[in-house]
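BUG: 3D viewer hangs when loading the predicted structure for this chain

Environment: internal workstation, default settings.
Expected: structure renders.
Actual: progress bar stalls at 90%.

Input used:
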Amino acid sequence: MRKLVALPVLSADALSSVAYGPEAMLTVLVLAGAAGLAYSLPIAAVVVFLMLAVGVSYRQTIRAYPHGGGSYIVAGDNLGPVAGLVAAAGLMTDYILTVAVSIASGIAAVTSALPGLRPLTVPLGVLVIAVLLAGNLRGIRQAGSLFAAPTYAFIIAMLALIGYGLYDAARGGFHRTPAPHVPVTETVGVLLIARAFSSGATAMTGIEAISNAVPAFRPVEWRNARTTLTCMVGLLITMFVGIVALIHLTGVVPTAKETMLSQLAHLSFGGGWFYVYVQAATAAVLLLAANTAFNDFPRVLSLLARDEYAPKMFLRLGDRLAYSSGIVLLSLAAALVYLAFGGKTNALIPLYAVGVFLAFTLSQSGMVVHWWRRRDAHWRKSLVFNATGAALSGLVLLTAGVSKFTSGAWAALIAIALFLLVTTRIKRHYTTARETLRLRPHAVDLPARTTAGPLAPADRTADGLPADRETEEIPEEIHHLSVVPIATLDLAGMRTLAYAASLGQPALAVHISISEEEERRFRAYWSLWGNHLPLQTVLSPYRALVAPLVHYIETLHRLNPDLTLTVILPEVVTRHRRHQILHSRTAGRLRRGLRHLPKIVITTVPFHLPC
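Structure tokens produced before the viewer hung:
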């Protein structure tokens, strides 16, 4: 992507956070009345320093990981697999809450302009999640000017709002309008200030998105990514400082009926068309930020599945080249969170900070270890930057965990703990299964007497009827070909091949390869273990399995309509039903894909695991 396109596409999450970050901070401070609001500027200054420090830290990450370095990869490479899992837990919590918070804020922007829709806040939010789910399942991806427009519209709206507001304030000598009297429910204390700081710091969410997507840039990729990150952080700081300054000058306070951005737009532009533009741009960019999570969450889940910490089904791309299973899981989780908290942004914010800064802290800590090990050019400067980012992120994480524990942070911490428990158990199951299924020298010896000879097209049977008519009435009229799809040469696959060969009918093995390198590697294994039957490989670079397999069998059937094709699949059977989801369910999907064809039989050969 060009920088002008990458900036809005990858920055939507971070830049849109100024729509709720400052308000989240003020919502806590207003509990202490005017005394609490007096701390808004000092806290905002600390948040800005944190933005700058973390932004500079991620510039070092981009340089060190030019092929993309998300928190899971960086923490796992440098701090070990457990730290990588904790970072992934924080990231995935962050993505789920990004959807819930962005949609809640977007709906709030709409209901501020159209108060009559306020009673429909929850149904509207769930409807938006359903629309995003449907769109992403159909393969609608972030690309080009279509997705750049909402972010640029929001940037223009915010800069216009800030510019006009400061100009208006300058005409009055920057005289501050006193805030209206609000009831005091808490006194100013360390805990209140800590809660406000951690809430305001959620305006930093999404900063790491550019470091994840370095390969998407035009050459030189890492240099263009660093430039884009610098522009994003600059815009984020400018808008955050401008919004907080306007709030301070105008005396606007949070209310349940209208967002603070809406109040500022009303003060500057009244109820005219530019006010409508500000609200529409805000809602649009927040919905785009939610859609960003639909790209990132399934990708992280696929990395976990690759490393056997998540079910293998999350590796599979759908027919429209989207990680369908991950998209569905994200939608369900975000909808449940949104419903549980009634679509209220301020109720969701306490959960948000924990996941965001957990990922930041581990990623930057991993970079400190990276520079200490590598010690290449400028490593000391890079180590200092990343150490500063790690220390500040860790401070915010600790602050959010302690100060917001009773407000909802406990739920995020429990979710992260459950994530670690589930992923480690999945890894343990896959390790046991792999050891059980592993081939050993001389453990398997297939008979070599049955092979598939050349297949010639046949249109009609001996009695003149169409060959694909299911007219066979006696065994002698049925002519077989066994097709054995093999993903991995393990004991389950070899048992299936042995079963097919033992039937005394022609048999053919088929392997779906995701790359030419993987195809060559499989053929090398095949020559050692399975070269008793002819092998056909099919290249499928998008990790799709069923669709290319269905297409191959359809072609085979069309060329040989007189044959009855028996597709024989290995099936791993687990002792516990809950573990079955971790293994392929290809037979059912293949059966549905081939149901319309005559003379196709699908069967499975079970292999029972002891776990």
